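worker-03 picked up job from queue 'complexes'. Input manifest follows; two sequence lines, order preserved.
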Amino acid sequence: MLVSALAKRTSIQVIALGGALALWNTALEAAPASCPSPIPLGLTTALTGNLALLGTQARNGVEFAVDEINKNGGVAGKQLALTTEDTGASSTDALNAMNRIIDGKPLVIIGSMISPHVFAQTESVTKSETPFLVGATNAKVTAQNSRWLFRTHVHDGQLAELIPTYLVKSLGKTKPGIIAVADDYGLGASKGIQEALAKLNVTPVAVTSYAPSDKDMSAQLLEIKDKGADSLILFGRPADIALVMKQMGDLGIKLTTIGNSSIVAQTTLNNLSTAEADGAYAIGGMIPQPSTDPKIVDWSKQILARYKVPADNFTVAYYDTVYLLKDVIEKVGCDKAAIRDSLAATKGWKGLFIEYTADNAGDLAHTLGIYRNKGKTPEFVGPIKDTAD
Amino acid sequence: MRISPYLALVAAGALSIPLLTHDNYVIQLLNIAILNAIVVLGLNYTTGWTGQINFGQAAFYGLGAYSTALATKFGLPWIAASFSAILVVALASLVLGLPTLRLRTHYLAMTTIGFAEIVRLIIVHWEPVTGGTSGLRDIPGIDLLGWHPQGQIQHYYIMIAVLALAVVVAARIRHSTVGRAMIATKDSEIAAEQSGVDTLRMKLLAFMIGAIYAGIAGCLYASSIRFISPDSFSGTQAVFLMTMLIVGGMGSIPGCVAGALALTILPEALRFLGQWYLVLYGLGVIGIIALLPGGLASVISVRKLRWGHPQ
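worker-03 finished. Artifact:
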C-alpha cells in the first residue's frame, strides 16, 4: 500500500514536473529575446562634404528620437546607445564607415539617404545579418535581394509616377519641360518621369539637366521656354532648386512648376523672394512646416532649437524609423532575425504623419504629400498614395 | 641584388598584419590604402619624376575600374578583363597624352582636369552601360585561374603582392636610363633635350605607365569592393591623390606608399574626434607640408642617414 502511495505520489510529481517544464518551454518560446544594455544602434550618414546638408537631417531625426526614447525610459527598460559614423561624400568612405559600424556589432543599422552609399554598403550589412533601415531614394535600392534591407522614406520611382500624373490629370498641363540635377537623385527621377509621361501620352518639350556644382541654369531654362513649355518639372537639391527658381524669376519665365520636396524645403524658401517661391508645387515625403497639429509644431520647434536647421522630410522619416524600431524591439526582443521578420510584416504602423506598411521589396513608405507654396509658406494640398499600397 | 634590412622589415610587417588582426574593417581599410598607394606610385611617374601636373589620375583609376566591371559582367574571364582594362587605360592615356603633353605647367593641369570631367560625364550619363550615378553592383570578383579569393585577408595578400610588384617596377625604372631621362625632363626640359633626351617621349611614357598603374588599381578595386560609382573617382579624389603624393614626398617611392597609407588611414584613425576629425586631418596635412617640404620621405631619409645608411 505504501509502495502504491509512493508510486502515485511520484507519478504526480513527474506529471507536475513535466507540466512545469512544458510551461517553462512555452514561456521561453514566447518570450522576446533578451536585449543587451544598452541596446547598440549604428548610423552611417554624410556629416561632411557636399552631401552634409542632407546627411545631417538623418542624424538629427535619429539622434532626437533616440534621446527622447532614452529620456522616457528607453526600450523595454534598456537605453539605446547610438554610434554614428560619417560617410563623407564618397562610396568608398561610406563602405569604410559601415565596416566600422559593423565591427561594433549593433543590433540594427540605419543607413543614409544617399543611394550610392547604400548600394556600396548593402553587401557588407547583408553578410553581417543585421537589419538595415535606410532612407535612400533610388528606387533600385530595395531591389538588391537583401532580406535585411528596409526603406522608410518614399523613393524616386513613386515620385516619378505621381508627379506627372498630378501635373497632367489634376493641373491639366500637357507640355512640360524637365530640368533635373545630374546626379543619382535627379537623373534617375528624370528617366522615370519621362516614362510616366509617355504612359500618359505626353511628350516633354525639352529634357535638360545640370551638374550638381553648376550655378547658371539659364541656358536650360531658356531652352524650355523657347520650346513652348506650359509647365516645368524640377528635380534637385534645395541649394540648386533655389538657384533655378531664382533664375526663372530673373528671366521672367512664369511656368507652373512642380517637383520634389526640395521646392518646399525651408532651406530653399529662405533663399527665395515671395514672388519666386509662390505657386510652385512639390510632391514628396511629408514635411512638418505646414502642419498646425500642436504636437508637430512643438516637435519642429524642438528640432530647430537643438540643431538650428529646420526639420525636413528626411528628419521625419528617420525619426519615425527609430520609433518603429522601438515598437518592434519591444514586441520581438533583440533577435536580429526576429526584428527583420517583424519589419517585413509591418502593417499600418502609425508614424508622425503617415502609416508604414512593408511591401515585398522592403519599402515601408507609400504615402506622399502634395504641397504648394503660398508665397514663402508651403501649404499641404493633400496626401497621395502610390499604387503599391 | 641586396635586400635592404628596412625593406625586409617592412615586408615582414606587412605580411604579418593579418596574423595580428582579423578585423575586417582594418583589413579593408588597408586594402583601400594599398590601392591608393598603387595609384599614387603611378602619379609619381608623371608628377614626381617628369614634373607634369596631372589631375587625370582618378579618371584613369575609374576607367580601369569600369572597364573591368563591364568586361567581367559581360562574361569575359577575370584575367582577360584585367588585361582589356589595362589596354583601355593605356590607349586612353596615349590618345590624351599625344596632343596634350606638348603643353606645359598649368595648361597640362587644366587639360587633365577636362579629361577627368569628360570621363565623369560619360560615366554619369551613359546610364544603360555604366549604371549612371547609381553605379554598378554585383561585379564578379577576382578569379585567378579558378581561385576566387574570399574575405578581406585573401584580397589583402593579392593587393600586397601587386603593390610589391608596382614598387619593384618603379624602382627598376627609376634607376634605369629611362628613369634618369624622366628626372632630367623634370629638372630642365631644354637641358634634357640638349643632352639627347626625347622629352615628349619621356613625358608620354611616364603618363602612360602612370595611367596603367591607376588602371591596375581600378581593376582590383572593382573586383574586390564589387561596387563602383562615379563619386569614388571624382575630381575630389584626384586632388586627394595629389595630396598623398605631396605629403608622401614627390619623386620618392617609399614616400608615395607612406603618403597613401597615411592619408587613407589618418581620417579613419581620427574618427573618435567626431565631426572635428576632418579639421585635425586638414591641420595635420598642412603641418606636414609646412614642416616637411620633402614630405614623409624626408623623415625616412633622415632616419636612414642616422642609422648609417646614407642614400
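worker-03 released lock.
Residues 2-30 of chain A form the longest helix (29 residues).
The mean pLDDT of chain A is 89.
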